[in-house]
Amino acid sequence: MTWLLSILNNLRLKLGLGGGSPTPVRKCQEVWLFDNTAFPTPRQPGKWSAEFVAAYFDEDSGADAAKVVAEIADMLGFAGDEEAEARIAERVEPFLNMILARKYVDVMFGGEAGEDGVNGGAGVLRLGPAANQGISVNELVLPGEGYVDDQVVESSAVFVEGEASMRTAFAEEVGWGVISDIDDTIKISEVRNRISLLKHTFADIPTPVPGMPELYQTIQSHLHKPVWFYLSASPYNLYTFLRNFTSTHYPRGQLMLREMSWMELQSFIVSLTIGTQRYKEDRMRRVFAWLPKRKWVFIGDSTQTDPEAYATLYKEFPERVGRIWIRVVKGVDEEKEKKLNSEERFEKAFKGVPAHVWRTFEQPGELEESVRELE
């Protein structure tokens, strides 16, 4: 697959960008600011903190983009379909554009940025510098006080050409939270079929799993607006694509995506199943540290290692995990599904987890009674 080699060769070059002193983002460079969740700052009454994630790209720097799009479209059977080719071009661009290491950006928290500075610096947060993958991750104390649960604050980048904005949702210490997988849990991806996975990722209009939007709205209502996290092994390059999907069909929540090197990206293109269990366990532990008094519902599926990862977290925090629900995916790869969907697999994964805590389901409507039990 020539297009894959093009992406990988480009990424190999990007990984050498880590030297030198950090510099600010400038014109013709693009920044993505990821929506996040604020939590009460430990040992600082009245203060709030949040993890800020930003991605940095050199705009329109992808080499041979048209050729790559044409090859993907031809391989997936969409050659000549202008709408599909436009979607492919939009989604593959973040993989082709040069990522930027050692960059930082200032963000006006709770307001729009102006060309002449922002309130003498009040409310400005500095994000960065970006690591070699073109991503910066900073846990910061937020300016101001008096925020309340479920409040949403919008922020924007300072001195960035074009649009770069984000939303911060506030979550109090107590209440419910939901950690949900994305691929084949709430979005049809067919992870176990490589060509179908590529179609759903790069070419198709994203489709929710039937019944899952309604189930999540039921959870939203019965658990009185829990805090939501959408935890996926997909690379951050798909952030805007997945954010648009989740915000259209599901309750507002924070997307947590993988920071990937070119070798990990190759694994993603081939299969979304490599190394996901440890990654998800680590991210869930981080969420638990942010909100140590919340109780949680985990929702995933049988195609990857969601059962094993969720069971691990239950065994570490049995008093904090209320329910684990696993969607059984059928009809993608029947041979592999014999093992993935077997009772033996689930019994082994959930050994030591009480029977009332976990269950599998095929149709989302099966969980209505289970949701009501949590009220």
UniProtKB/TrEMBL annotation:
<dbReference type="Pfam" id="PF09949">
    <property type="entry name" value="APP1_cat"/>
</dbReference>
<protein>
    <recommendedName>
        <fullName>Phosphatidate phosphatase APP1 catalytic domain-containing protein</fullName>
    </recommendedName>
</protein>
<dbReference type="InterPro" id="IPR052935">
    <property type="entry name" value="Mg2+_PAP"/>
</dbReference>
<feature type="domain" description="Phosphatidate phosphatase APP1 catalytic">
    <location>
        <begin position="176"/>
        <end position="327"/>
    </location>
</feature>
<feature type="signal peptide">
    <location>
        <begin position="1"/>
        <end position="18"/>
    </location>
</feature>
<dbReference type="InterPro" id="IPR019236">
    <property type="entry name" value="APP1_cat"/>
</dbReference>
<keyword id="KW-0732">Signal</keyword>
<dbReference type="GO" id="GO:0030479">
    <property type="term" value="C:actin cortical patch"/>
</dbReference>
<dbReference type="GO" id="GO:0008195">
    <property type="term" value="F:phosphatidate phosphatase activity"/>
</dbReference>
